[in-house]
Each structure stands twice: as structure tokens, then as C-alpha cells.
Nucleoid-associated protein SAMN05216261_0786
Amino acid sequence: MFGDMMNMMGKLKETQKKVEETKKRLDTVLIDESSHDNKLKITLTANRTIKSIEIDDELLQDKEQLEDYLILTLNKALEKATKVNEAELAAAAKEGLPNIPGMDMFK
């Protein structure tokens, strides 16, 4: 019994380490998103840190239009990044989870 508990604790620590490594790696995964007409381009990491924003000069003439473009394009980029982030972290956690009764929702 005690050996099983120690083995489980070891696997949990190993899983935690894999999750942390995955988080660091996701800082290097870049997500690109553009407006439908390519007047606005956004790049962010899978950890949802904005890396760059490119704005066409035409959008700089209309504040309200630029704000709309930013909201729409940032939301699309954040949605993509969140999907990648959640999938990668779930895979890292699932890989190392010990077989605990009742915790099969992660499998």
C-alpha cells in the first residue's frame, strides 16, 4: 500500500514537471491571425502573450474601425491559442496521470 502511494506521488511529480515543461514550450509556439482582408495581423504565443500587431495604414484613419478589427481579430487569435494551450496541457497531464479510481475523466 505504502509503495503504491509513493509510486503515485512520484508519477504526480513527474506529471507536474511535464506540464511545466509544456507551458515553457508553449511560449515558443506562435499563433498567427489576420483580419478577413489582411489589414490587421496579430501574432501571439500559445500561452496568449501578444508578440506583434501589424496595422494597415488605412485602418489608422478610422479609430472605430480599427477598434472593431482589433476586437474581432484578437478574439479569434485568443480562441486559437486557448485551444492549442488546453490541448497540449491536457495531453501532458493525461500522459503522466496514475490510474486513480474515479479520475478516468482525464483519460
In short: The radius of gyration is 20 Å. The chain has a mean pLDDT of 87. The longest helix spans residues 63-96.
